Amino acid sequence: MDIRGYFGYGYKKKYYRQHLSANAYPSSYEQRFADMIPRDPSAFKEWVNTKIKMLEKTKISQGLMIFPYDDIDTDILGYKLCDDPGWTFNNRYTKWTYVIDLDNLVFTVNGRTHLRLDNMPPREPSLEYYLNTDTNIPPQHLGIAVNLWPDPGFDVQKCQEKYEALGSSIVSTTE
After folding, report:
1. Fewest Cβ atoms closer than 10 Å to its Cβ: which of 33, 88, 130, 161?
2. What is the pTM of this model?
3. Measured between alpha carbons, how far is 20 from 27 in angstroms, rounded to an integer?
4. List of E strands, 38-157
5. Domain ranges within the chain, ordered by starting residue
6. Rounded to whole angstroms, what are the CA distances from 88 to 32, 60, 131?
7. pLDDT digits (tens, 9 = 90+) for 3-20
8. pLDDT one-digit tens code per residue, 73-108
9. Which domain of life is it from (predicted)?
């Protein structure tokens, strides 16, 4: 049975996503995506910079970009650009999502589990083991502060200054 899912990157408050072409279960994809992330600190920094450059040059598609099951190196395929992080959560139609978030430096599963990119859990036991059992992921591997809010599209400080310049006051209503 085909279980729908997505893989994507998050960068500059935008998401670059691809539809997973086969079963999106963790046994099929999750560990493969996690294994793409280098565990060595110097290799990790270079990898992050390479992914950022790749996303800045990527071709954007309006259609459905399909992640090929047999080829993990999909950077040349292109991505669909999304502003809304809502797709990162599982729902009635999408059961599994995997996001490498370069803004927050986390690997996110189903919008809820955030693993630190710079301190990923070891390959054994697999991530599938943690997600499918009652075993907790060790806290040193979890990302805590993840900001998914989009940029407001205006200068917040300037608006705050304009508001304060109005000299507004709160008055009570009388009957």
Report:
1. 161
2. 0.73
3. 13
4. 60-61, 66-67, 79-82, 96-101, 106-109, 113-116
5. 5-148
6. 18, 18, 16
7. 778 889 999 888 888 888
8. 555 556 788 888 888 887 777 788 889 999 999 998
9. Eukaryota
